[in-house]
Write a structure and sequence with these properties.
about 80 residues, alpha+beta, 3-stranded antiparallel sheet, 1 helix
Length: about 80
């Protein structure tokens, strides 16, 4: 059985005190928000949320590659 290679990702995480613990956001991952009762729990929740977020993106990319007729490309946009 082939061994799965893991890749390590690093992200800046924002721990915002909310009166009951910490609200956690990761600026590079839009829409990802979690929380914890203390900094330790918030950190663990952030790691788990990032893992789930990335797994969903990777699964979506794999599905898109397998879909017939799907074309993906990067475009440049000026603002």
């Amino acid at each position: 059985m082939a061994r799965k290679t893991e890749k390590i990702y690093k992200y800046d995480v924002v721990f915002d005190p909310n009166g009951e613990g910490y609200t956690v956001t990761i600026p590079k991952l839009p829409g990802l928000i979690t929380e914890g009762k203390n900094i330790k729990e918030a950190r663990e929740m952030a790691k788990d949320a990032v893992r789930v977020y990335l797994e969903a993106i990777l699964k979506e990319e794999l599905f898109a590659k397998k879909s017939a007729g799907v074309k993906r490309e990067k475009i440049k946009v000026s603002v």
